[in-house]
Amino acid sequence: MLLTLPGLIDPHVHMREPGQTHKEDWRTGTTAALAGGFTCILAMPNTQPPLVDIPGLEAAEECARKKALCDYGLFLGAGTENVDTAARLAPKTAGLKMYLDQTFGPLHLKNKAAITAHMTHWPAAKPIVVHAEGRKIAMAIQIAARLKRSLHIAHVSRKTEILLIKSAKEKGLAVTCEVTPHHLMLTKEDIPRIGAGRSEVRPRLAGKTDQAALWENLAVIDCFATDHAPHTAAEKDGDNPPPGFPGLETALPLLLNAVYEGRLTMEDLLRRMHDNPKRIFSLPEQVATMIEVDLDARWTVRGEYLNSQCAWTPFEGMSVRGRVMQVDLRGTRVYEAPYVIVEPGFGRNIAGGSLAPDPVRPIPM
Ligand SMILES: [Zn+2]
Q: 13 C-alpha to center of ligand 1: Å?
């Protein structure tokens, strides 16, 4: 059966460019996005250099403008030195990302005063996303609540965390959150199968109780976000394996499999992969945009056949359902399985893109 769905939105991906194109670049990353049914992705700022200032934003935007195949937004990273710059650049971005816990890259923000300053100055109309784990989530929610501003919690993975967010929502606080397919589908018990280095991810794979709590509290989860974070197989198998999984091409089939198994409804899925991310991140409507999915296609995940440059996956060998057959974006057919059929650069920045000042209008005489 062929099913037509709206273009999916992934509010959490790492495109690795500029700086680490041996892992992924905007062309391979957005090819993976289209093959996975995503027509809009929001990219994280822990690139090299990190996206924390005007040159950083210009460099990332230039790569994306030339190579992106789907629409995109760029997150700005919060540092101790860029509170004013960040607030000024806000209209050109998808939002502000604050790393309150250690992650891949240099953007770890430990200073509570800087966290508060960013939350104070960042415009209310633009979202703030935090990577916070455990008690750091409580701290972030507390500061946001005091400043009466909304907050989105990235990749929630633990029982204590989802319950904390549930209780914040019950108190009426403007808190939203996302969960990754890997935290829904994998646990620590999968580590021997995946391999120790390849299993490295932040937040780490959790236990069965945590995983069960995520499913039990599905109503608390606003978005499914992949946290697509590719590294090469050689890096993952090396001495110092960096944390992160690719995820763009496996998210929809894994979740459609959950729909088939009755663990999720199609409405649950679309709300979390389209409606809610669109609303939370104030994304513009993608007119004449849709994906066509063959729901009967059953296939086995193989890293070597993925479009992501890293060519491995923690879901290797898993049986999934549903294949994206074609994608229309803004009235143009952009993908016909298994090929992208538009040129790099087709994707547009949801925040308007170019940092060039608006053209000077002649003063009417
Ligand atoms: Zn991430």
A: 6
Separation between Cα atoms, residue 229 and residue 84, nearest integer Å:
29
Check pLDDT > 60 for residue 354: no
CA of 257 to the centre of ligand 1 (A): 24
Measured in Å, residue 7 CA sits from the centre of ligand 1 at: 21
Strands (E), the chain: 2-6, 8-13, 38-43, 71-77, 95-99, 128-131, 151-153, 175-179, 223-224, 290-300, 319-329, 332-336, 339-340
Kindly give the distance from the C-alpha atom of residue 258 to the centroid of ligand 1, in angstroms, as a whole number: 23
Residue 101's pLDDT band, with cuts at 50, 70 and 90, is confident
Distance CA 271, CA 289 (A): 16
- Could you tell me the distance, in angstroms and rounded to a whole number, from the CA of residue 44 to the centre of ligand 1? 7
Q: What's the CA-to-centroid distance between 331 and ligand 1, angstroms?
A: 31
Could you report the per-residue pLDDT of 157-197, keeping only the tens digit for each?
999 999 999 999 999 999 999 999 999 999 999 999 999 99
pLDDT, tens digit, 9 for 90 and up, residues 120-156:
999 999 999 999 998 899 999 999 999 999 999 999 9
Three-state SS string over 77-98 comes to ECCCCCHHHHHHHHHHCCEEEE
Query: Cα(76) to centroid of ligand 1, in Å?
Result: 13
C-alpha 45 – ligand 1 centre gap (Å): 9
**Rounded CA gap, 215 and 229, in Å?**
23
> What's the gap in Å between 223 CA and the centre of ligand 1?
14
Question: What is the distance, to the nearest Å, from the Cα of residue 134 to the centroid of all Cα atoms in its chain?
Answer: 20
CA distances from 308 to 96, 134, 249 (A): 26, 31, 8
